[in-house]
Amino acid sequence: GMSAETIKKNWMTIGTDNKTYEIKSKGGRTKSGAKGIGRFALDRLGRLCVLKTTTENSNGVIWKVDWDSFEQNGKNINEIYATLETPDTDNNMDALSILGPEIVEEIKAGLKKRKNPLDLEKTLSTGTIIKISSVRDHWNDLAIKNLKDRLESLVPPSEDTSFQLFLFCSNTAKYNGLLQPEICEDYDYKLEVNLDKKLNLSGRVIRNEFRLEDIPSEFFQSDDTKDLKDKIKLLDFPLSELMPGISDMESSKTGPFSFTLYFMKRTVPNKTDTEKYYQKKIDTNSRSLWLDSYGGIKLFRDNFRVRPYGERGSSSWDWLELGNRVALNPAQVSRHRHWKVSPNNITGVINISRIENPYLEDKSSREGVQENDSFL
């Protein structure tokens, strides 16, 4: 939650830099956003805003604003005021009464799924509630579904449950509940990689394309094939083996990061080749539908999605320009070391951090990362 002083000095002041110097919250979470302008998204959603926030051992603070008051003719911004109230009574449990018993029970069930389960009443004793009214748009079923899809894309697709989102709608219950990303299980190859500060690469490749148990053992006798008998191949080598000439200066500006990539074929060879090469059977229609909905490589900073990277329909869907590499060298998969992966066949996540990757700064618009040398 926020104190009255925090509301006055940070929330109500445009372009504050407190998150630049106070990167970590009291709970150890890395704070997201540092431009000091994110609150103005509330104006886009609705005309009236009531914010209730409570810190430990306090009755809380209530902040109210009519965003249309900022559009009054002949007035400067320093002549427009919001309302700040300090209730006489304990405001801590307002959240439970606002949510209602059914929603509370569903949230409780979701919190129990966390690696470190939380007690809802204790969790809601501090924090912030924002109520937006006189909304700007009509929220029909399609708009709510789009909201659900967008919110799901903000959740990191991993077993980490430290960041959870719930959606509840009074118009329809079919989208209600804990929002969870679609985890890819039907893949041919999965690549999990960590890159440390010295650009040493570690991780593993999980092979899921072939029926390894059916392949005759003599196939794995040669030097070229002996490493193919295991489903999991461990990785541990310096990045310079893949990118000769990368310098220490480049490593210091890049910083450590991790990523997970999935490769999925959309088509299969004929039945004869499938049996000949011991390939697993796949549902091509199901895969294509999944990739069309969830494909692309997403970027997350401290478990928060950085848009629009990997967002289908945007100019940054193929932000790594994998499609250009395929167009420049359209070799067949049979061409050893020359075949390039199409962006239409992969999905994945790259994870960075404000602390470990300080040179990867947000654009002022909050849409993407500044395309400096570290990014390129």
From TrEMBL:
The keyword Nucleotide-binding applies. GO terms for molecular function: ATP binding. Transmembrane segments: none annotated. Keywords: ATP-binding, Nucleotide-binding. InterPro entries: HATPase_C_sf. This is ATP-binding protein. It comes from Salmonella enterica.
